[in-house]
Amino acid sequence: MQALAEKLRLVNVNPNSLTEDKLTRTLRLYSPIDGYVTKINVNVGKYVVPTDVLFELVDPDDLHLMLTVFEKDLDKLDIGQKVVAYRANQPEKKYVAKVVYIGKDVNDDRAVEVHSHLQGEAPALVPGMFMNAEVEVQSRNAYTLPEDAFVHFGNKEYVFVVQKNGIFEMIEAETGNSEHGYTALLPSSGLAPEKQTFATKGAYTLLMKLKNKTQED
User: Fold this and answer.
1) Reduced to 3 states, what is the DSSP secondary structure of residue 180?
2) Segments of the chain assigned E as strands
3) pTM of the predicted model over 0.85
4) What are the beta bridge partners of residue 111?
5) How would you write the pLDDT of the chain (217 residues) with one tens digit per residue?
6) For residues 5 and 22, what is the distance between their CA atoms, to the nearest angstrom?
7) CATH of domain 64-135
8) Are 172 and 191 in contact (CB under 8 A)?
9) How far apart are CA 103 and CA 88, in angstroms?
10) CA-to-CA distance for 158 and 156, rounded, in angstroms?
């Protein structure tokens, strides 16, 4: 009887309130979390046992993103690193996450599972959805210019600086990493982005005009 009473309490039924005149054929099962049902494993009339999984639930406030990281890149990862994820058909929509767990075993593809926790609400995401992700392995401040501001010429990178008289001057630039359409300017370039004005697009066109003018002269 004690075991039966405990089972009744698990489904929010007070055994002391049950009498011959107060019985019901149905019981309500309450979810332990607020979320939505992603899978139903039972139907009406099916017999179940305590070990059966009746429903699968997802908590939209606690979404995780599983990443597949190759073994050669594993040493670049650490707990707490920032992750920026996006869907292939919506690359402009970014979802921010943080690495919370790094797998300890390598699968047959020489890859490791890395789990990250999504920050904020993401109602458009559903379990099983494929996403691309970028992990921020290093973070530092740098002056950047759009990729269209650079032109490759003679095995070197150049930018065009606007002088006070409105003339464009072609200056060699030492570049760093490129990401999301921008390229970093290294301090060794000797440029002063906070004081100078740059042509942010059309660098190749300016180079062609400069070469044509040089040939005419």
Assistant:
1) coil
2) 36-40, 55-58, 64-70, 82-87, 90-102, 111-118, 132-135, 143-146, 151-153, 156-162, 168-172, 175-179, 182-185, 197-198
3) no
4) 70
5) 555 555 555 566 666 666 677 776 777 777 777 777 878 888 888 888 878 888 887 776 778 889 988 888 888 888 988 898 998 888 888 889 999 999 888 888 888 999 998 887 777 787 788 989 888 876 677 788 888 889 888 888 999 988 877 888 888 888 888 777 888 888 877 787 778 888 888 888 888 887 776 655 5
6) 16
7) 2.40.30.170
8) no
9) 25
10) 7
Distant-in-sequence, close-in-space partners of 126: CB < 8 Å, separation ≥ 6: 38
Task: Give me the residues paired with residue 116 across strands.
Answer: 65, 99
Other beta carbons within 10 Å of 85: 20
User: What's the distance, Cα to Cα, between the start and end of the chain in Å?
Assistant: 105
Q: Residue 210 burial (CB < 10 Å; 0-12/13-18/19+)?
A: middle
16: left (phi over 0), alpha (psi -120 to 50) or beta: alpha
Domain boundaries, the chain: 64-135, 143-212
How far apart, in Å, are the Cα atoms of 55 and each of 10, 28, 49, 61? 16, 14, 13, 18
For tokens 């004081």, what's the residue? 195
For 143-212, the fitting CATH number among 1.10.3720.10, 2.60.40.3140, 3.30.360.10, 2.40.420.20 is 2.40.420.20
CA–CA distances in Å: residue 108 to residues 67, 71, 105, 140, 149: 16, 11, 10, 35, 43
